[in-house]
Write a structure and sequence with these properties.
With about 90 residues, the protein is of the alpha+beta class. The protein has three helices and two strands; from the N terminus they run ααββα. GO terms for molecular function: endonuclease activity; hydrolase activity; RNA-directed DNA polymerase activity.
């Protein structure tokens, strides 16, 4: 966020479980805007509650490993309050 507003949104059709789709969307967004994100702390807001605990897992696999090296936190935002992302 910059001045309290999202910097960008990303949309892509995905065919996996909700958790995997949300994780893949995060990885795609981080990779797409890595030149802005590397070296900066950023917040990822998601309506997928289980992703909030992604950083607490001991073993990371596949897409999860692609997020290593970034300084971020994941915040849960209830679906009814997360309309901007769903509108895409």
């Amino acid at each position: 966020m910059q001045q309290g507003k999202p910097l960008a949104f990303l949309s892509q059709a995905l065919l996996k479980s909700v958790y995997e789709r949300e994780l893949m969307a995060i990885v795609l967004a981080v990779q797409k805007w890595r030149h802005y994100l590397l070296g900066s702390h950023f917040v990822i807001k998601t309506d997928q509650r289980s992703l909030k605990y992604l950083l607490e897992q001991r073993l990371l696999e596949g897409d999860q490993q692609k997020l290593l090296g970034y300084d971020f936190e994941i915040q849960y935002k209830e679906g009814k309050d997360n309309r901007a992302g769903d509108a895409l």
